[in-house]
Amino acid sequence: MTETVLGIPTIRPQTHVTVQTYADHLRKHGHEGTTILVADDAPAGANSVLTAGLAEVAQASPGLDLAYLGPEEKAAYLSGLEAEVPGAGRLLQPGYGGNRNWLLLATLGRHLVSVDDDVHPYGLLRDRPRTPGLILEGGFVAQAGLDRARTVDFDLLGAFGAMLGRPVAEVLAAWEARGTPLAVGSHLRDANVDLTLNQALRPLQPAAVALVPAQAAPRGRIGLTQAFLSGDPDLDAQELVWAFHRWGDGRILQGRTPVRFVVDQHRPCVLDHDFRLTAAVLGLDNTEGTIPFIPTRLRFEDYLLRLYSRHQGFHVGYPDVVQTHLRAMAGRNNTVRDLVIEGLATLMKQMINAGLRETGPLAFRFDARPALADAGLRDLWARLVAPLETLPDGGRAGQRSPYWHFYQALVREEALDLHDPGPFIARARVQLLAAYQDLRAAMALWPRIQARAWRVPLRPRHLPAARSAYSRVS
User: Which residue among 6, 71, 338, 458 has its CA within the 20 to 30 Å range from the CA of 473?
Assistant: First the structure.
Protein backbone atom coordinates (compact mmCIF):
# COMPACT_ATOMS: atom_id res chain seq x y z
CA MET A 1 0.00 0.00 0.00
CA THR A 2 1.37 3.41 -0.98
CA GLU A 3 2.38 5.61 1.94
CA THR A 4 0.57 8.93 2.34
CA VAL A 5 2.32 12.02 3.70
CA LEU A 6 0.36 15.01 5.03
CA GLY A 7 2.31 18.08 3.86
CA ILE A 8 1.83 21.58 5.26
CA PRO A 9 3.59 24.40 3.37
CA THR A 10 4.00 27.51 5.50
CA ILE A 11 5.83 30.72 6.28
CA ARG A 12 3.98 31.45 9.53
CA PRO A 13 5.66 30.89 12.91
CA GLN A 14 2.32 29.84 14.45
CA THR A 15 1.83 26.83 12.16
CA HIS A 16 2.60 24.39 14.98
CA VAL A 17 -1.01 25.03 16.09
CA THR A 18 -2.29 23.71 12.75
CA VAL A 19 0.08 20.74 13.02
CA GLN A 20 -1.25 19.87 16.47
CA THR A 21 -4.83 20.12 15.17
CA TYR A 22 -4.14 17.69 12.32
CA ALA A 23 -2.09 15.38 14.55
CA ASP A 24 -5.15 15.08 16.81
CA HIS A 25 -7.36 14.58 13.74
CA LEU A 26 -5.15 11.79 12.37
CA ARG A 27 -5.08 10.02 15.74
CA LYS A 28 -8.88 10.27 16.05
CA HIS A 29 -9.35 8.53 12.69
CA GLY A 30 -6.70 5.83 13.19
CA HIS A 31 -3.89 7.31 11.09
CA GLU A 32 -1.28 7.63 13.88
CA GLY A 33 1.60 6.38 11.72
CA THR A 34 1.16 9.08 9.08
CA THR A 35 4.07 11.46 8.56
CA ILE A 36 3.28 15.16 8.84
CA LEU A 37 5.84 17.11 6.84
CA VAL A 38 6.14 20.86 7.36
CA ALA A 39 7.82 22.79 4.52
CA ASP A 40 8.94 26.11 6.00
CA ASP A 41 9.44 29.03 3.59
CA ALA A 42 10.94 31.31 6.24
CA PRO A 43 14.45 32.64 5.61
CA ALA A 44 17.39 31.26 7.59
CA GLY A 45 17.39 32.53 11.15
CA ALA A 46 13.67 33.38 11.14
CA ASN A 47 12.30 29.94 11.94
CA SER A 48 13.12 29.48 15.64
CA VAL A 49 9.57 30.09 16.89
CA LEU A 50 8.09 27.51 14.52
CA THR A 51 10.73 24.84 15.18
CA ALA A 52 10.33 25.29 18.94
CA GLY A 53 6.56 24.92 18.61
CA LEU A 54 6.91 21.83 16.41
CA ALA A 55 9.27 20.22 18.93
CA GLU A 56 6.61 20.68 21.60
CA VAL A 57 3.99 19.09 19.33
CA ALA A 58 6.28 16.10 18.68
CA GLN A 59 6.89 15.58 22.38
CA ALA A 60 3.18 15.87 23.24
CA SER A 61 1.99 13.47 20.50
CA PRO A 62 3.16 9.88 21.06
CA GLY A 63 3.59 7.99 17.82
CA LEU A 64 3.51 11.11 15.66
CA ASP A 65 6.07 11.15 12.86
CA LEU A 66 6.75 14.88 12.45
CA ALA A 67 9.25 15.99 9.82
CA TYR A 68 10.57 19.47 9.04
CA LEU A 69 12.00 20.90 5.84
CA GLY A 70 13.32 24.35 6.59
CA PRO A 71 15.87 26.82 5.20
CA GLU A 72 18.92 24.85 6.38
CA GLU A 73 17.70 21.53 4.95
CA LYS A 74 16.74 23.19 1.67
CA ALA A 75 20.06 25.00 1.29
CA ALA A 76 22.06 21.82 1.91
CA TYR A 77 20.11 19.88 -0.71
CA LEU A 78 20.03 22.71 -3.24
CA SER A 79 23.79 23.08 -3.31
CA GLY A 80 24.20 19.53 -4.60
CA LEU A 81 21.18 19.79 -6.90
CA GLU A 82 22.44 22.98 -8.55
CA ALA A 83 25.80 21.34 -9.20
CA GLU A 84 24.06 18.69 -11.32
CA VAL A 85 21.14 20.75 -12.65
CA PRO A 86 22.21 24.40 -13.02
CA GLY A 87 19.27 26.74 -12.63
CA ALA A 88 17.22 24.26 -10.59
CA GLY A 89 16.76 26.86 -7.88
CA ARG A 90 14.28 28.81 -10.01
CA LEU A 91 11.70 26.07 -9.39
CA LEU A 92 12.45 26.00 -5.66
CA GLN A 93 12.68 29.70 -4.89
CA PRO A 94 10.78 31.15 -1.93
CA GLY A 95 7.11 31.74 -2.63
CA TYR A 96 3.90 29.79 -3.06
CA GLY A 97 4.94 27.50 -5.89
CA GLY A 98 8.57 26.98 -4.90
CA ASN A 99 7.76 25.84 -1.37
CA ARG A 100 5.17 23.36 -2.64
CA ASN A 101 7.74 21.98 -5.10
CA TRP A 102 9.96 21.11 -2.13
CA LEU A 103 7.06 19.01 -0.83
CA LEU A 104 6.82 17.24 -4.19
CA LEU A 105 10.52 16.34 -4.14
CA ALA A 106 10.37 15.16 -0.53
CA THR A 107 7.40 12.85 -1.21
CA LEU A 108 8.46 11.17 -4.45
CA GLY A 109 7.12 7.63 -4.56
CA ARG A 110 4.27 8.44 -2.17
CA HIS A 111 0.89 10.11 -2.06
CA LEU A 112 0.94 13.72 -0.90
CA VAL A 113 -2.03 15.34 0.82
CA SER A 114 -1.16 19.03 0.95
CA VAL A 115 -3.03 21.20 3.45
CA ASP A 116 -2.59 24.96 3.80
CA ASP A 117 -1.42 26.19 7.18
CA ASP A 118 -4.72 27.98 7.87
CA VAL A 119 -7.07 25.07 7.09
CA HIS A 120 -9.02 23.20 9.78
CA PRO A 121 -10.15 19.53 9.64
CA TYR A 122 -13.88 20.10 9.78
CA GLY A 123 -16.61 21.51 7.58
CA LEU A 124 -19.22 24.19 8.24
CA LEU A 125 -22.57 22.77 7.09
CA ARG A 126 -26.18 23.84 7.44
CA ASP A 127 -29.47 22.06 6.89
CA ARG A 128 -31.49 23.64 4.09
CA PRO A 129 -33.62 22.38 1.20
CA ARG A 130 -31.32 21.07 -1.53
CA THR A 131 -31.46 21.92 -5.21
CA PRO A 132 -31.45 18.69 -7.24
CA GLY A 133 -28.56 18.01 -9.59
CA LEU A 134 -25.89 20.17 -7.92
CA ILE A 135 -22.43 19.02 -6.83
CA LEU A 136 -21.92 21.95 -4.44
CA GLU A 137 -24.43 24.34 -2.96
CA GLY A 138 -23.94 26.89 -0.22
CA GLY A 139 -24.03 30.51 0.77
CA PHE A 140 -22.39 33.28 2.77
CA VAL A 141 -23.38 33.73 6.39
CA ALA A 142 -22.59 36.65 8.69
CA GLN A 143 -20.30 35.79 11.58
CA ALA A 144 -23.19 36.25 14.01
CA GLY A 145 -25.20 33.59 12.19
CA LEU A 146 -22.57 30.86 12.30
CA ASP A 147 -24.06 29.41 15.46
CA ARG A 148 -26.74 27.90 13.22
CA ALA A 149 -24.13 26.01 11.19
CA ARG A 150 -23.00 22.51 12.12
CA THR A 151 -19.31 21.71 12.57
CA VAL A 152 -18.76 18.29 10.97
CA ASP A 153 -15.58 16.26 11.26
CA PHE A 154 -14.45 14.34 8.14
CA ASP A 155 -11.76 11.65 7.85
CA LEU A 156 -9.55 13.49 5.35
CA LEU A 157 -6.90 10.80 4.77
CA GLY A 158 -9.42 7.96 4.75
CA ALA A 159 -11.59 9.67 2.14
CA PHE A 160 -8.66 10.74 -0.04
CA GLY A 161 -7.04 7.31 0.25
CA ALA A 162 -10.18 5.62 -1.08
CA MET A 163 -9.71 7.51 -4.36
CA LEU A 164 -6.15 8.76 -4.84
CA GLY A 165 -4.05 6.72 -7.24
CA ARG A 166 -6.81 4.16 -7.81
CA PRO A 167 -8.33 3.14 -11.16
CA VAL A 168 -11.60 4.91 -11.91
CA ALA A 169 -13.42 1.59 -12.42
CA GLU A 170 -12.34 0.37 -8.97
CA VAL A 171 -13.51 3.55 -7.25
CA LEU A 172 -16.86 3.58 -9.04
CA ALA A 173 -17.45 -0.08 -8.17
CA ALA A 174 -16.64 0.51 -4.50
CA TRP A 175 -19.15 3.36 -4.24
CA GLU A 176 -21.75 1.34 -6.15
CA ALA A 177 -21.32 -1.49 -3.65
CA ARG A 178 -22.02 0.96 -0.82
CA GLY A 179 -25.31 1.91 -2.43
CA THR A 180 -24.24 5.51 -3.09
CA PRO A 181 -23.11 5.73 -6.74
CA LEU A 182 -20.61 8.46 -7.52
CA ALA A 183 -21.51 11.28 -9.86
CA VAL A 184 -19.31 11.20 -12.98
CA GLY A 185 -18.75 14.03 -15.43
CA SER A 186 -16.48 16.04 -17.68
CA HIS A 187 -15.98 19.05 -15.38
CA LEU A 188 -17.79 21.41 -13.03
CA ARG A 189 -19.67 24.53 -14.09
CA ASP A 190 -19.93 27.59 -11.85
CA ALA A 191 -21.98 30.55 -13.13
CA ASN A 192 -20.17 32.90 -10.72
CA VAL A 193 -16.65 32.21 -11.99
CA ASP A 194 -14.76 32.17 -15.29
CA LEU A 195 -13.11 28.85 -14.49
CA THR A 196 -10.63 29.02 -17.37
CA LEU A 197 -9.00 32.09 -15.82
CA ASN A 198 -10.28 31.54 -12.24
CA GLN A 199 -11.79 35.02 -12.31
CA ALA A 200 -14.93 36.08 -10.41
CA LEU A 201 -17.89 37.16 -12.53
CA ARG A 202 -20.45 37.61 -9.74
CA PRO A 203 -18.72 38.00 -6.38
CA LEU A 204 -20.17 36.76 -3.08
CA GLN A 205 -23.12 35.03 -4.69
CA PRO A 206 -24.52 31.73 -3.36
CA ALA A 207 -22.71 28.74 -4.86
CA ALA A 208 -24.58 26.48 -7.27
CA VAL A 209 -21.92 24.29 -8.89
CA ALA A 210 -23.22 21.78 -11.43
CA LEU A 211 -21.71 18.79 -13.20
CA VAL A 212 -21.22 18.71 -16.97
CA PRO A 213 -22.06 15.08 -17.83
CA ALA A 214 -19.56 12.74 -19.50
CA GLN A 215 -18.25 9.21 -19.15
CA ALA A 216 -15.03 8.68 -17.17
CA ALA A 217 -12.47 6.44 -18.85
CA PRO A 218 -12.66 3.12 -16.95
CA ARG A 219 -8.94 2.51 -17.48
CA GLY A 220 -7.99 5.91 -16.18
CA ARG A 221 -6.84 6.60 -12.64
CA ILE A 222 -7.54 9.33 -10.14
CA GLY A 223 -4.35 11.39 -9.91
CA LEU A 224 -5.72 14.34 -7.94
CA THR A 225 -8.22 14.59 -5.11
CA GLN A 226 -9.86 17.76 -3.88
CA ALA A 227 -11.85 18.69 -0.77
CA PHE A 228 -14.90 20.92 -0.73
CA LEU A 229 -14.19 24.10 1.24
CA SER A 230 -16.14 26.16 3.75
CA GLY A 231 -15.01 29.16 5.79
CA ASP A 232 -13.54 32.44 4.64
CA PRO A 233 -14.47 33.33 1.06
CA ASP A 234 -11.67 32.94 -1.47
CA LEU A 235 -11.74 36.52 -2.70
CA ASP A 236 -9.23 38.13 -5.00
CA ALA A 237 -8.33 41.81 -4.63
CA GLN A 238 -10.95 43.02 -7.09
CA GLU A 239 -13.62 41.13 -5.17
CA LEU A 240 -12.40 42.73 -1.94
CA VAL A 241 -12.94 46.14 -3.52
CA TRP A 242 -16.46 45.08 -4.56
CA ALA A 243 -17.08 43.76 -1.03
CA PHE A 244 -15.91 47.08 0.43
CA HIS A 245 -18.48 48.88 -1.70
CA ARG A 246 -21.13 46.48 -0.41
CA TRP A 247 -20.37 46.72 3.34
CA GLY A 248 -18.28 49.91 3.65
CA ASP A 249 -15.90 48.38 6.20
CA GLY A 250 -12.31 49.53 5.65
CA ARG A 251 -10.95 46.27 7.09
CA ILE A 252 -12.22 44.51 3.97
CA LEU A 253 -9.51 46.27 1.96
CA GLN A 254 -7.00 44.47 4.21
CA GLY A 255 -8.57 41.12 3.33
CA ARG A 256 -11.11 40.69 6.14
CA THR A 257 -14.74 40.02 5.26
CA PRO A 258 -17.75 39.85 7.63
CA VAL A 259 -19.07 36.59 6.14
CA ARG A 260 -18.10 32.93 5.85
CA PHE A 261 -19.12 30.30 3.34
CA VAL A 262 -21.31 27.48 4.66
CA VAL A 263 -22.04 24.32 2.65
CA ASP A 264 -25.67 23.30 2.11
CA GLN A 265 -24.86 20.19 0.09
CA HIS A 266 -21.81 18.53 -1.45
CA ARG A 267 -21.85 15.46 -3.64
CA PRO A 268 -18.76 13.28 -4.23
CA CYS A 269 -17.82 12.93 -7.88
CA VAL A 270 -15.15 11.93 -10.41
CA LEU A 271 -14.22 14.37 -13.16
CA ASP A 272 -12.33 14.16 -16.42
CA HIS A 273 -10.70 17.51 -15.62
CA ASP A 274 -11.21 20.31 -13.14
CA PHE A 275 -10.63 24.06 -13.40
CA ARG A 276 -11.86 24.61 -9.83
CA LEU A 277 -8.75 22.95 -8.40
CA THR A 278 -7.13 24.77 -5.53
CA ALA A 279 -4.04 23.84 -3.55
CA ALA A 280 -5.69 24.60 -0.17
CA VAL A 281 -6.52 20.91 0.41
CA LEU A 282 -5.17 18.77 -2.40
CA GLY A 283 -4.19 15.13 -2.85
CA LEU A 284 -1.55 14.25 -5.45
CA ASP A 285 -0.48 10.83 -6.65
CA ASN A 286 3.29 11.36 -6.57
CA THR A 287 4.25 7.71 -6.91
CA GLU A 288 5.90 8.31 -10.29
CA GLY A 289 6.40 12.06 -9.98
CA THR A 290 4.15 14.84 -11.18
CA ILE A 291 4.32 18.29 -12.72
CA PRO A 292 5.56 21.20 -10.60
CA PHE A 293 3.74 24.17 -9.18
CA ILE A 294 4.54 27.45 -10.90
CA PRO A 295 7.31 29.27 -9.01
CA THR A 296 5.69 32.68 -9.04
CA ARG A 297 4.73 35.59 -6.84
CA LEU A 298 1.67 36.28 -9.03
CA ARG A 299 -0.44 33.85 -6.95
CA PHE A 300 -1.49 31.31 -9.53
CA GLU A 301 1.01 28.62 -8.56
CA ASP A 302 -1.59 25.84 -8.86
CA TYR A 303 -2.81 26.87 -12.33
CA LEU A 304 -0.77 24.20 -14.15
CA LEU A 305 -2.58 21.51 -12.16
CA ARG A 306 -5.81 22.62 -13.76
CA LEU A 307 -4.30 22.17 -17.19
CA TYR A 308 -2.63 18.93 -16.10
CA SER A 309 -6.00 17.51 -15.06
CA ARG A 310 -6.85 17.32 -18.78
CA HIS A 311 -4.04 14.79 -19.29
CA GLN A 312 -5.29 11.62 -20.99
CA GLY A 313 -6.31 8.88 -18.57
CA PHE A 314 -5.98 11.25 -15.60
CA HIS A 315 -9.00 12.10 -13.43
CA VAL A 316 -9.91 14.24 -10.43
CA GLY A 317 -11.85 12.94 -7.44
CA TYR A 318 -13.96 14.87 -4.95
CA PRO A 319 -14.62 12.53 -1.99
CA ASP A 320 -17.02 13.13 0.88
CA VAL A 321 -14.84 15.73 2.64
CA VAL A 322 -15.36 19.37 3.62
CA GLN A 323 -12.52 21.33 5.23
CA THR A 324 -12.64 24.88 6.56
CA HIS A 325 -10.26 27.57 5.37
CA LEU A 326 -9.92 30.42 7.91
CA ARG A 327 -7.44 32.55 6.07
CA ALA A 328 -4.30 33.83 7.71
CA MET A 329 -3.45 37.07 5.97
CA ALA A 330 0.34 36.57 6.07
CA GLY A 331 1.52 37.58 2.63
CA ARG A 332 -1.92 38.98 1.79
CA ASN A 333 -1.63 42.31 3.60
CA ASN A 334 -1.24 44.55 0.56
CA THR A 335 -4.49 44.50 -1.39
CA VAL A 336 -3.24 47.49 -3.40
CA ARG A 337 -0.39 45.44 -4.79
CA ASP A 338 -2.59 42.35 -5.13
CA LEU A 339 -4.98 44.23 -7.41
CA VAL A 340 -2.14 44.69 -9.91
CA ILE A 341 -0.65 41.23 -9.35
CA GLU A 342 -3.96 39.51 -10.07
CA GLY A 343 -4.51 41.53 -13.21
CA LEU A 344 -1.07 40.48 -14.45
CA ALA A 345 -1.76 36.86 -13.43
CA THR A 346 -4.91 36.83 -15.58
CA LEU A 347 -2.89 37.97 -18.59
CA MET A 348 -0.25 35.34 -17.80
CA LYS A 349 -2.91 32.61 -17.73
CA GLN A 350 -4.07 33.73 -21.17
CA MET A 351 -0.47 33.51 -22.41
CA ILE A 352 -0.10 30.01 -20.93
CA ASN A 353 -3.32 28.78 -22.54
CA ALA A 354 -2.39 30.24 -25.92
CA GLY A 355 1.21 28.98 -25.77
CA LEU A 356 0.64 25.44 -24.47
CA ARG A 357 1.65 22.90 -27.09
CA GLU A 358 2.20 19.60 -25.25
CA THR A 359 1.21 18.09 -21.91
CA GLY A 360 3.58 15.41 -20.68
CA PRO A 361 3.61 13.31 -17.50
CA LEU A 362 6.17 15.57 -15.79
CA ALA A 363 6.22 18.83 -17.71
CA PHE A 364 4.57 21.02 -20.33
CA ARG A 365 5.99 22.44 -23.55
CA PHE A 366 5.20 26.03 -24.55
CA ASP A 367 5.70 28.16 -27.64
CA ALA A 368 8.90 30.19 -27.55
CA ARG A 369 7.05 33.38 -28.42
CA PRO A 370 3.99 34.08 -26.28
CA ALA A 371 0.91 35.95 -27.41
CA LEU A 372 0.76 39.23 -25.46
CA ALA A 373 -1.18 42.10 -27.03
CA ASP A 374 -0.94 45.68 -25.83
CA ALA A 375 -4.74 45.76 -25.79
CA GLY A 376 -4.86 43.49 -22.75
CA LEU A 377 -2.31 45.59 -20.88
CA ARG A 378 -4.15 48.78 -21.79
CA ASP A 379 -7.43 47.30 -20.52
CA LEU A 380 -5.76 46.43 -17.21
CA TRP A 381 -4.43 49.99 -16.86
CA ALA A 382 -7.90 51.37 -17.62
CA ARG A 383 -9.50 49.16 -14.95
CA LEU A 384 -6.94 50.32 -12.39
CA VAL A 385 -7.29 54.05 -13.02
CA ALA A 386 -11.05 54.21 -13.69
CA PRO A 387 -12.10 54.38 -10.00
CA LEU A 388 -9.71 57.28 -9.42
CA GLU A 389 -11.92 59.53 -11.56
CA THR A 390 -14.74 59.21 -8.99
CA LEU A 391 -12.70 59.79 -5.83
CA PRO A 392 -13.07 62.97 -3.80
CA ASP A 393 -10.53 65.59 -4.86
CA GLY A 394 -8.87 65.86 -1.47
CA GLY A 395 -11.71 67.22 0.63
CA ARG A 396 -11.56 66.42 4.30
CA ALA A 397 -14.22 63.72 4.17
CA GLY A 398 -12.56 62.09 1.18
CA GLN A 399 -9.20 61.97 2.92
CA ARG A 400 -10.75 59.97 5.77
CA SER A 401 -12.28 57.43 3.39
CA PRO A 402 -10.54 54.01 3.33
CA TYR A 403 -11.41 53.85 -0.36
CA TRP A 404 -9.66 57.19 -0.99
CA HIS A 405 -6.54 56.01 0.85
CA PHE A 406 -6.63 52.68 -1.00
CA TYR A 407 -6.50 54.25 -4.44
CA GLN A 408 -4.03 56.94 -3.45
CA ALA A 409 -1.74 54.10 -2.34
CA LEU A 410 -2.35 52.37 -5.68
CA VAL A 411 -1.17 55.46 -7.56
CA ARG A 412 1.82 55.89 -5.29
CA GLU A 413 3.03 52.28 -5.07
CA GLU A 414 2.51 51.42 -8.73
CA ALA A 415 3.58 54.83 -10.06
CA LEU A 416 0.43 54.93 -12.19
CA ASP A 417 0.19 57.71 -14.73
CA LEU A 418 -3.50 58.58 -14.79
CA HIS A 419 -3.39 59.94 -18.35
CA ASP A 420 -0.77 57.91 -20.20
CA PRO A 421 -0.89 54.07 -20.14
CA GLY A 422 2.49 53.82 -21.89
CA PRO A 423 4.78 53.54 -18.83
CA PHE A 424 2.56 50.95 -17.15
CA ILE A 425 2.28 48.89 -20.37
CA ALA A 426 6.05 48.90 -20.83
CA ARG A 427 6.77 47.75 -17.27
CA ALA A 428 4.06 45.09 -17.30
CA ARG A 429 5.15 43.74 -20.69
CA VAL A 430 8.73 43.24 -19.47
CA GLN A 431 7.49 41.51 -16.30
CA LEU A 432 5.10 39.16 -18.10
CA LEU A 433 7.51 38.17 -20.87
CA ALA A 434 10.21 37.43 -18.29
CA ALA A 435 7.77 35.34 -16.21
CA TYR A 436 6.71 33.38 -19.31
CA GLN A 437 10.29 32.59 -20.32
CA ASP A 438 11.11 31.62 -16.73
CA LEU A 439 8.20 29.18 -16.84
CA ARG A 440 9.41 27.65 -20.13
CA ALA A 441 12.90 27.20 -18.71
CA ALA A 442 11.56 25.75 -15.47
CA MET A 443 9.47 23.19 -17.33
CA ALA A 444 12.58 21.97 -19.13
CA LEU A 445 14.43 21.55 -15.82
CA TRP A 446 11.77 19.81 -13.75
CA PRO A 447 12.17 16.24 -15.18
CA ARG A 448 15.93 16.47 -14.50
CA ILE A 449 15.30 17.74 -10.96
CA GLN A 450 12.96 14.84 -10.23
CA ALA A 451 15.36 12.31 -11.78
CA ARG A 452 18.07 13.54 -9.45
CA ALA A 453 15.69 13.39 -6.46
CA TRP A 454 15.02 9.72 -7.23
CA ARG A 455 18.78 9.05 -7.12
CA VAL A 456 19.55 11.37 -4.18
CA PRO A 457 16.45 11.52 -1.97
CA LEU A 458 15.59 14.71 -0.15
CA ARG A 459 15.47 13.81 3.55
CA PRO A 460 13.69 16.20 5.90
CA ARG A 461 14.73 16.52 9.52
CA HIS A 462 12.64 14.45 11.92
CA LEU A 463 11.88 16.09 15.22
CA PRO A 464 12.61 14.53 18.62
CA ALA A 465 10.57 11.50 19.64
CA ALA A 466 9.31 10.98 16.09
CA ARG A 467 10.11 7.77 14.22
CA SER A 468 11.20 8.18 10.62
CA ALA A 469 8.85 6.83 8.01
CA TYR A 470 11.24 8.16 5.37
CA SER A 471 14.01 5.83 6.47
CA ARG A 472 11.70 2.89 5.79
CA VAL A 473 10.81 3.95 2.25
CA SER A 474 13.76 5.86 0.78
Answer: 71
